[in-house]
Inverse folding.
């Protein structure tokens, strides 16, 4: 009946279903997204320039599926599962339903295995477990993608079962997608990662489908008992694409012109992230959705929706980023609702009260700016907090192993760095870890195998730092 902006109104398909694939001329596929009394709203899944009013449309009785298989790893593909990296086609092992009901409570297990990000600030205070959904939220350009990419790169260090990673780019510039893929390749992460990309130039339909397709592909590996990490970058653009489609389909608009089911859009997507019980294969899908805020407004419509669906959020703040704190995590409102269950005992032993002392330090630091006389205890807290803040800073693409994190966080929280100048901490940390690896390798072996710190290991740690401070690396 009509066609415009990738949305067609079709009539005469009496028995067509919601989510069904229809074929238009030149073998172009469409997806039914609207059902009215005498017509259906169809979004076109490829170039729609050749389609005209009056063309014939065929129903297929098929629900949208995407291909999946192990050969996808290391590739860049579009939301329909076609390779877009110029390499040869890959073998399809199975086709997966793009829209699928999430696993029920009976099949699930509570999150108990850590997913190490390699970032000291995250692993110590906002731990992420396999099967969790942790939102990364913040303004534009404060390092949201950097946290996700560092987490993917860090999976290379996991000695036991490798986590298969999927980076789903929604509405990103092609240059940025190419840059990230090159970085992952360079760091050896593409051996267990693939990218599902719908660029900014792609149609709203493709941007809308991207996260669902990526999740369907993740479910293929989940069925095989694998652990999967999926990054949705970002769901704000996904909501915009869906709003665009909904308005073109003439659905009534609600708050901020979004359709009424915008909450359901993301809840049915993120609910598919799961930690399965061993009886059902024991695999997991961990989700790191990314949301962009405007001027740090976490109380806007889409951010509050996604915060209420996820199991915690990492909030990145512009002011901290500008002050050189990177990752720019605001400890006050960042939280992991899985918490200590997703941490090894050794990390809990050293980082138990880290979050509280950092929050107290930030408050005291704001107060101390007024320059009033401070008592000794307050001064000590300020010095300790400053050193801990310095230790939690970390350059991009340099994830730390969990034992390295534990040793340096222990040194900072126990006051061993109080007498070191703020500017020298980065160099001290690097040299101390190198020294400990050479002369006190038992500390790291013990933490890696035991997953907890014994009294003997604590005394070894104390001995190591005392010796290093006395004699230096030599």
């Amino acid at each position: 009946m009509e066609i415009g902006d990738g949305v067609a109104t079709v009539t005469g398909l009496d028995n067509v279903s919601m989510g069904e694939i229809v074929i238009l001329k030149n073998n172009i596929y469409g997806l039914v997204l609207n059902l009215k009394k005498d017509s259906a709203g169809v979004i076109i899944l490829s170039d729609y320039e050749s389609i005209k009013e009056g063309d014939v449309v065929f129903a297929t009785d098929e629900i949208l599926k995407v291909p999946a298989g192990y050969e996808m790893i290391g590739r860049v593909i579009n939301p329909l599962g076609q390779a877009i990296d110029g390499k040869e086609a890959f073998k399809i092992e199975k086709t997966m339903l793009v829209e699928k009901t999430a696993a029920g409570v009976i099949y699930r297990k509570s999150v108990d295995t850590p997913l190490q990000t390699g970032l000291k600030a995250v692993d110590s205070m906002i731990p992420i477990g396999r099967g969790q959904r942790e939102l990364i939220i913040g303004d534009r350009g404060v390092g949201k993608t950097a946290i996700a990419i560092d987490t993917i790169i860090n999976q290379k260090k996991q000695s036991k079962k490798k986590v298969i990673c999927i980076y789903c780019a929604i509405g990103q510039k092609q240059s940025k997608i190419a840059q990230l893929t090159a970085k992952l390749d360079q760091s050896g992460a593409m051996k267990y990662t693939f990218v599902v990309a719908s660029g900014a130039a792609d149609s709203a339909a493709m941007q809308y489908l991207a996260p669902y397709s990526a999740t369907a592909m993740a479910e293929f590996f989940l069925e095989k008992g694998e652990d999967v990490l999926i990054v949705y970058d970002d769901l704000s653009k996904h909501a915009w694409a869906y709003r665009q489609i909904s308005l073109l389909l003439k659905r009534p608009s609600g708050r901020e012109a979004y359709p009424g089911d915008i909450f359901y859009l993301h809840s049915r997507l993120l609910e598919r992230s799961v930690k399965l019980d061993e009886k059902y294969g024991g695999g997991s899908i961990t989700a790191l959705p990314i949301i962009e805020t405007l001027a740090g407004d976490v109380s806007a419509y889409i951010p509050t929706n996604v915060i209420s669906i996820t199991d915690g959020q990492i909030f990145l703040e512009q002011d901290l980023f500008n002050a050189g704190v990177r990752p720019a995590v605001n400890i006050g409102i960042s939280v992991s609702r899985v918490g200590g269950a997703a941490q090894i005992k050794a990390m809990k032993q050293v980082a138990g009260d880290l979050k509280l002392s950092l929050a107290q330090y930030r408050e005291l630091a704001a107060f101390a700016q007024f320059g009033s006389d401070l008592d000794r205890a307050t001064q000590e807290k300020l010095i300790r907090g400053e050193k801990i803040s310095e230790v939690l800073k970390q350059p991009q693409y340099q994830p730390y192993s969990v034992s390295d994190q534990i040793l340096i966080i222990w040194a900072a929280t126990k006051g061993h760095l109080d007498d070191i100048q703020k500017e020298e901490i980065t160099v001290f940390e690097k040299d101390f870890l190198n020294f400990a690896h050479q002369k006190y390798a038992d500390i790291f072996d013990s933490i890696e195998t035991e997953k907890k710190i014994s009294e003997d290991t604590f005394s070894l740690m104390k001995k190591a730092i005392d010796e290093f401070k006395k004699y230096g690396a030599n």
Notes: The first helix runs from residue 120 to 125. The CA atoms of residues 72 and 194 lie 7 Å apart.
